[in-house]
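quick q for whoever's on today - can somebody do inverse folding on this one?? i tried earlier but teh output was garbage lol. tokens:
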């Protein structure tokens, strides 16, 4: 079965493709379908955005489509950046700018109040427009400064007390074992398995 990974984020596409390795799937990405228009992420929740990002390409491409929306929710910021995580520092910002803005807002927050959770919602859409979704969560806290060079997004500032490291200090294999995205994908895999029997 051919599966479209509906993301323009090369890091996410690589991570998802690695997690799907060894399955009876031919994985393609939006790069293989340049004619598909970009999906406007205007949902108020991660679920709404993930469903929209899976559904629109599925209907247009005629392929089963997988998409995710991920948000970092910080306790001291009343859940921000949340659904706006990817564009927290502005519409054309990069990962480093988002991390700088977050750390600047957190500069006076003591360690016990720096709790945060990464949430990932992965949606699976059929070419006929049927959508199902699952969620993964990873709890941690916001570090006082970035550490590590692996990963992307907020990984350098997301500290995992049990690992005594940030997400960006983990290897790909370590991250894929515990991450919010891998949890959500593992929950979706049984839905995919029904389609590839």
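ok took a stab at it. sequence:
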């Amino acid at each position: 079965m051919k599966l479209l990974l509906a993301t323009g984020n090369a890091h996410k596409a690589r991570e998802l493709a690695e997690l799907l390795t060894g399955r009876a799937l031919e994985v393609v990405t939006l790069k293989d379908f340049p004619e598909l228009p970009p999906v406007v992420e205007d949902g108020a929740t991660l679920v709404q955005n993930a469903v929209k990002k899976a559904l629109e390409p599925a209907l247009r491409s005629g392929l089963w489509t997988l998409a995710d929306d991920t948000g970092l929710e910080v306790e001291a910021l009343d859940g921000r950046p949340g659904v706006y995580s990817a564009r927290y520092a502005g519409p054309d910002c990069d990962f480093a700018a988002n991390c700088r803005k977050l750390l600047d807002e957190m500069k006076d927050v003591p360690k016990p109040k720096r709790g945060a959770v990464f949430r990932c919602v992965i949606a699976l859409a059929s070419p006929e427009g049927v959508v199902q979704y699952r969620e993964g969560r990873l709890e941690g806290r916001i570090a006082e400064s970035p550490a590590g060079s692996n990963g992307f997004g907020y990984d350098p500032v997301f500290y995992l007390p049990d690992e005594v490291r940030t997400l960006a200090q983990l290897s790909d294999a370590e991250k894929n074992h515990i991450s919010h995205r891998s949890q959500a994908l593992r929950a979706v895999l049984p839905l995919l398995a029904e389609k590839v029997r």
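fwiw The two ends are 10 Å apart (CA to CA). also The chain has five helices and eight strands. so keep that in mind when u check it
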